[in-house]
Amino acid sequence: MGHLTTLRHPEAAARFAADVPRTHWHDQALWFMRLKRDRAAAQVPEWERLRELAQAIKAHALANLPALLEQFERNATGAGATVHWARDAGEHNRIVHRLLADRGVSRLVKSKSMLTEECGLNPYLEARGVEVVDTDLGERIVQFRGEPPSHIILPAIHVKKEEIGALFHEKLGTAAGASDPKYLTEAARGHLRQKFLAAQAGLTGVNFAVADTGAVVVCTNEGNADMGTALPPLHVACMGLEKIVPRAEDLGVFLRLLARSGTGQPITTYSTHFLGPRPGAELHIVIVDNGRSALLGRDPYRRALSCIRCGACMNTCPVFRRSGGHSYGVTVPGPIGSVLAPAVNPLAHAALPFASTLCGSCADVCPVGIDLHHQLLAWRRELAAAGHVPVVKRLALRLAAWIFASPRRYALAGRLARLALRVLPARLTTRLSGAWGRQRELPVAPAESFHERYRRTHGRA
Amino acid sequence: MAAREEILAALRRHAGPGLPRPVLDGVGARFPDLVARFTEGVAAVGGAVVRVPDRAAADAALRALPIHLEAKRVASLVAGVGAPPFDAGTVEDPHDLEGLDLAILPGELAVAENGAIWIEGASLPHHALVVIPEHLAVVVEAGAIVPDLHAAYARLDLAGRPRWGLFLAGPSKTADIEQALVIGAHGARSLTVLLVG
Question: Who's near B173: CB < 8 A, 6+ residues apart?
Fold first, then answer.
């Protein structure tokens, strides 16, 4: 996807996990979010009913996307916005750049938009002389560091405050050694306020596009989407075409779920409904496909288009928590990203559906009820059938299937394994057990198998 | 418009059989005391509620608060509350609102469950008034509290009236540095709700 380099997840994750205290710190930080989500969900007695409704509304919206998009376009246009359509990332970037270039815009402020990350908009615009400032604090931090966000709602979750202090000391002239979050946030506020005041255009993502009103809804806690669009004369809102909800009343369901699922807040601080431009200003909405219409035709993966990007599946995923968002090498990491990415490029992202224990925790917390672990399993089958699984893994699984297919071979393999555990040195057996044995001791081999014991005590198997 | 037609054609191919619109039943929060729950809700999102019997009392209560006492530039969009009234309507360029210490905004309705208040775009000459001031006070009637967002959207009837607006829940905040909650990221550093009636 976009400008990101393709990574093999196991190697990248191993590099991340090599720093044990940091991995533990990252794991705990995300688990803290999961706990906050649990507390918030528990306070809403009809939580499960809300999830069912959210899933049903999204299923309805996906099945009626063409009509809903046309309705949205009609209403948004009627309110004074201009709607653009982009087939892919390149077309999206060209549309945004033309909007800016035609108006002589060289200073753009952005609030969070995973879509523009996916499209590689920032480097595209920067190469054409536009200063692009990400204004979400976490996004500004990773932009200063020259790296993509590692999490869709917590872009700098992988960075420690001491590192941010050193970064801000270099970039913003904060006191050397200062790492107090309040102090650093205040410095960013002052820095970004100047950027907001100087901006000639503001770009936002879109959380929800409402077909029956033509409004786009943008949710932030910092107020950066409001600040970025309230001052300059041009607002560009970029949305994936799956962001449609049919009616304004549907927002009641989604806004009750979104922030509770992501950060455990009852609602984000600013949930702004933009309908048409401000007087004297322009609102341009860019609707982007970039592989989404193709995904719509692919069961079971089409349900992944229901995602509202809350981040809950990342916070709960035992693999994400211990491998970090960057190890996935895609804009949207974690369980949902591991379903979306192979659809775009199966070969490049073949490792991602295997970056899961299939424990199903992601599906349990998903506010729109996407059956994520089933989709990951479906991808594994598909990728294996297409030969996109490493040879060693393929041969090992074929061997296992051959052994499990015959009781005699199974019994023989068990005897050999018990013998190996008894007579071979632990260093060797641990190595033979592969990645699993790297951080575990192998069990002490029992003298006999269950079958052997049964035969001995009962006389027959 | 080749892109539009191509995308819509692809979607028509893949959309599959139509599904009925789900009916939003079986949801709806109920609270025995809406004011109490809303007050808790505002506190939970980092704001504070001051309950007053009427507009005059709201004015008096606000003037006694440090956000008003220490403010040099105030913009009141609520007649009779906070002064001297700053005629924001005469400000043509929203950039000139920079440096505003306090804005007093009208809230159209309030949501008990999450402490959010609907700020109606039509009631403000500039969208920037929501984010640019150092502090915000919002005046809302106790009778305008609804239990949850479902009731709020039913009351707002957004499909009927084209307009912008937002649910505002507490002051601006961020937790992007090691998840330490910091109030006052880009927008208001505090939110005071003057609950009237």
Answer: A221, A222, A269, B46, B181, B182, B183, B184, B185
> Using CB atoms and an 8 Å cut-off, which of residues 99-158 of chain B contact chain A?
111, 113-116, 126-128, 130-132, 148-150, 152-154, 156, 158
Q: Per-residue pLDDT tens for A343-370?
A: 999 989 999 999 999 999 999 999 999 9
CB atoms closer than 10 angstroms to residue A311: 27
- Nearest alpha carbon to residue A72 among A208, A207, A204: A208
Highest CATH level, class, for B30-196 = alpha beta
Return the domain boundaries, chain B: 30-196
- Structure tokens belonging to residue A295: 């995904």
Q: Does A121 touch chain B (CB under 8 A)?
A: no
Task: Collect all residues with Cβ–Cβ distance below 8 Å to A416 and sequence separation of at least 6.
Answer: none
**Calpha distance A158→A321 (Å, rounded):** 10
Question: All domains of chain A, ordered by start, with CATH?
Answer: 46-294 (3.40.50.10420), 391-458 (no CATH)
The pair of three-digit structure tokens given for residue A378, joined into one six-digit string: 């479906």
Instruction: Collect all residues with Cβ–Cβ distance below 8 Å to A330 and sequence separation of at least 6.
Output: A1, A4, A337, A340, A341, A349, A352
Q: Which ranges constitute the DSSP H helices of A348-390?
A: 361-365, 372-385
Is the ipTM higher than 0.85? The answer is: yes
A302 in contact with chain B, both atoms CB, cutoff 8 A: yes
Single pTM value for the model? 0.94
C-alpha–C-alpha distance, residues A185 and A169, integer Å: 13
